[in-house]
Amino acid sequence: WTADAMHNASTNIASEYELGSNGTRRANAVLLMLARNSELNDAITSVKELEQRFNRRFNYPWVFLNEVPFTDEFKESMSSIVSGPVSFGLIPPDNWYQPDWIDEEKAADSRAQMVAENVVYGGSVSYRNMCRFNSGFFYRHPLVQRYKWYWRVEPNVHFHCDTDYDPFLFMEENDKLYGFTITLYEWPKTVATLWDAVKEFIDANPQYLPANNSMKYLSNDGGASYNMCHFWSNFEIASMDLWRGEAYSKFFEHLESKGGFYYERWGDAPVHSIGAGLFARKDQIHFFDDIGYQHDPFQHCPRNAEVRRARNCTCNPFSSFDYWPSSCLSKWEQVLRS
Ligand code: GDP
Ligand code: MN
């Protein structure tokens, strides 16, 4: 396989991220979207909104990834609406498809069982491929490798407020590693043995956990069990150094060895959240309260009326997920303060 196409107006990417069009310093960051060709219209919606609300002032590069080549229509449409450089990459097959060592009979039984129990995406192999790729491979893709920071964007999401500052520089200057907007509970049936694997790993490798980690956000009983809280990973502004570091790399290898991405339906959201929650300090995780964000069926709207006015937000704070019973935000904030 090779990187599919480089629709890049510039020949000097290295200098691209040092100065924005407004001449200010910028971060080594990328706007990243995994998408299918069939999602073109929804992808356009997301890209146009993020350009309008943020990137037209910053011109960060976009990278689109897919396990099959993007169509010319996809590439041409995207190239015409982005304000920065854009490239389109093909995912190496080994990073996407179910590995040969997975016992397909066992995996198929589990899928059938989840379908019978009405688990969302319970019968889908491609969804599992996507979750495993997002958990352990996207940050190693050749088109992504050169960047440190990423903002994950999905097709058909909405940005309800202006982001008039650079969130990547904010993260860098404040020693943050992981940023989120929505936190909620995972479906227990998708991660039945995930926490067993986590405990095995941290018992064997306690040196990877900083003292002020976020274990209390993930577990209500001192680490004995997982409470299902996770950051919703369809929105992430984060450092890939977190994923590329020794702790998370070994952690991912350990999870991979269990086969749970296929024998269960481990999501990249709980996997990232547990990784960030255990291997970063809690003060390195940032709640982007000021970014209005919607991925159906949930949305987050800034809590502060001043912020909503200053950023021209179009969302309704009463629709915000933050204080729904199924949100983990109050738990997160309680842990952060403790
Ligand atoms: P949900 O948000 O959990 O309902 O899952 P989505 O269907 O939105 O998928 C999450 C992300 O992975 C989105 O960016 C999708 O475009 C992408 N995605 C999901 N399945 C596939 C797939 O089979 N191929 C590709 N290329 N992208 C996929
Ligand atoms: Mn989605």
Automatic annotation (TrEMBL):
A GO MF label: alpha-1,2-mannosyltransferase activity
GO annotation (BP), single: protein N-linked glycosylation
A Gene Ontology cellular-component term: membrane
Keyword entries, A-Z: Membrane, Transferase, Transmembrane, Transmembrane helix
Source organism, top-level taxon: Eukaryota
Active site: E236
Family membership noted in the UniProt record: Belongs to the glycosyltransferase 15 family.
Protein's recorded name: Glycosyltransferase family 15 protein
Residues of the full protein shown: 67 to 404 of 404
